[in-house]
Fold this sequence. Notes:
mainly beta, about 180 residues
Amino acid sequence: xxxxxxxxxxxxxxxxxxxxxxxxxxxxxxxxxxxxxxxxxxxxxxxxxxxxxxxxxxxxxxxxxxxxxxxxxxxxxxxxxxxxxxxxxxxxxxxxxxxxxxxxxxxxxxxxxxxxxxxxxxxxxxxxxxxxxxxxxxxxxxxxxxxxxxxxxxxxxxxxxxxxxxxxxxxxxxxxxx
Length: 178
């Protein structure tokens, strides 16, 4: 007589986390701080993976400024699954004053759909607009000294993160879309 396993694995819960970005304006995970502490099942665990790097650990992962939703999925040898999720928020260490000091101007903020960007020194390698979960909504690799971006197709009332990469620095700013 075959025994059928219908019991899903258990995964220890991880609380939402807030961390500060480093000098590169990203956060690099060191160790297993954001990995589940325990994963158990009555017939054994076949795999444990996360949705960020599709690996069993986040050690060494580099997170951008903003909010990233991490989902862990455990699968047992019978194919039963269980998932948990948590929000990892990376806080920017670069303020508006630093942008202006670097010759980067973003206006109007808040905006009704059109955002203007001016770069005093056009050393910009790329710029990315992401939502607060860290999902890229727009990326521009050919950047002019003066740019006007149309954000009117984006959801109104959400905060958008702009990451601007120069040769050796990344600048980040929040904008508000009314």
